[in-house]
Amino acid sequence: MPSTPLSILDLSPVPAGGTVTDALRNTVDLARRAEQSGYHRYWLAEHHLAAGVASSAPAVLIGQIAAATSVLRVGSGAVQVGHRTALSVVEEFGTLAALHPGRIDLGLGRSGQRRIEAARESAAPAPPPVAARVVDGLLIPPPFSYAQVLASPRFALSTALLHQPGAQPPPFAEQVADVLALLRGDYADADGLDAHAVPGEGTDLQVWLLGSSGGESAQLAGALGLPFAANYHVSPSSILDAVAAYRAAFQPSPTLAEPYVVVSADVVVAETDDTARRLAAPYGPWVRSIRSGAGAMPFPSPEQAAALPWTDDDRDLVADRVDTQFVGSPPTVVERLRTLRDVTAADELLVTTITHAHADRVSSYELLAKEWND
Predict the structure, then answer these.
(1) Confidence (pLDDT) at 1
(2) Cis, bond preceding 199 (omega within 30 deg of 0)
(3) pTM over 0.90
(4) What residues of the chain score a pLDDT lower than 70?
(5) SS3 call for 330
(6) Cα(first)–Cα(last) distance of the chain, in Å?
(7) 313-319 long-range contacts, CB within 8 A, separation 24+
(8) Among 97, 355, 85, residue whose Cα is nearest residue 206
(9) Among 124, 138, 285, 352, which is disulfide-ready with 343 (CB 3.0 to 4.6 Å)?
């Protein structure tokens, strides 16, 4: 039986004391090495206004990485279509697919609707506490509420800068339908007027939907017969709901005869468990910087992280993410990743690794690939 494919999700992390140029060059270098290590695909996340993350323009980076590699699939994880039009996305990724046929993935994610949902969540009565549970060896922590983060002034500023004044994002399902129609070449408006995306129409883009729950993204991916990426690393509490909702909604399509699920995980691998724990120590403060509403800070070194203030409230704020990060020697992490794969029945795993030193990040991916494929 062939090994389950491993892929990479990269945020182009900016290390404390480093520069954006360092981060972007490191991303291209890591992609080259990932191809040599046998990783299947390399996705770029989309983040904005974060001092510690340089992947704000995934399509630009995808072009650079595809040009620097030869067989690695390269794509987005995911384009935030809430502040884009379907045509702009198809033209952009169609250009990439025309230049690098058979290698480009277009991952689409919901955005724009989250502010409305956050307002509803904050106005509703608080749900009863949910205890952590372990399902066949996989930790499912209590859910984290993003209402406070999404209601923060910084999130409002980000929304204002990403949207044209007065613009309202259309429903996600409509945007996905428009993307697919433009790619197929059968787009028409309500009056029957056709439109054709050049580049874009007829290209072999592989379209994915990404989601963190059993909500609209998972259900829509299933109904359309598209592959689905479920985010254990972002929302571990809802991973089982997400994959179950996708599979329950799945309808065969020209794209897929059967469901296909990728599941993500935060991972740090080193030669020993102790070394890996030291390299992963800054992860908690880094997640805290995101969830406090300030945005991801430059990723600190282990020594810098140890000098930062840390309280019980800080620990509670990031516990679900820290407790579900897979950290250790190659055998330790591979055992846990196999548990994640088996419990979710994942067809592929999407690994994201952040360390302060680029060499440690490269080593983590190389050690993991070797142990996984042995």
Answers:
(1) 41
(2) yes
(3) yes
(4) 1-2, 112-127
(5) helix
(6) 13
(7) 314/284, 314/285, 314/288, 315/284, 317/287, 317/288, 317/291, 317/292, 318/284, 318/287, 318/288, 318/291, 319/141
(8) 97
(9) 138
Main-chain dihedrals φ then ψ at residue 53, nearest 5 degrees: -135, 125
Q: What pLDDT, on a 0 to 100 scale, did the predictor assign at position 294?
A: 84
- The 3-state DSSP composition of the chain as helix, strand, coil percent (nearest 5) reads 45, 15, 40
- Helix extents (H) in the chain: 20-37, 58-68, 86-99, 114-123, 147-150, 153-162, 172-184, 216-224, 239-249, 273-280, 283-291, 302-307, 312-323, 330-344, 358-373
Helix (H) or strand (E) holding 328: strand 326-328
Cβ-contact 228, 261 below 8 angstroms: yes
For 200, the token pair is 């874009």
- In degrees, to the nearest 5, what angle opens at C-alpha 46 toward C-alphas 101 and 341? 75
Determine the pLDDT at residue 279: 98
Q: What angle do CA 96, 80, 181 make, to 5 degrees?
A: 60
Assign residue 155 a region: left if phi > 0, alpha if psi is -120 to 50, beta otherwise? alpha
**Beta-bridge partner residues of 107:** 208
Backbone angles phi, psi at 191, to 5 degrees: -95, 5
Contacts of 361 (CB under 8 A, 6+ apart): 26, 30, 353, 354, 355
Q: Say how far apart CA 283 and CA 276 lie, in whole Å.
A: 12
Q: How many helices (H) and strands (E) does the chain have?
A: 15, 12
> For residue 125, with 0-12 CB atoms within 10 Å meaning exposed, 13-18 middle and 19 or more buried, which class applies?
exposed
Candidates 281, 267, 369; CA nearest to 326 is 267
CA dihedral 170, 171, 175, 176 (to 10 degrees): 170
Cis check: omega of the bond before 306, within 30 degrees of 0: no
Rounded to an integer, what distance in angstroms lies between the CA atom of residue 287 and that of residue 296? 7
Report d(CA 211, CA 217) in Å as an integer.
5
Parallel, antiparallel, or unpaired for β 133-135 and 138-140? Answer: antiparallel
Amino acid of residue 253? S
Distance CA 262, CA 347 (A): 6
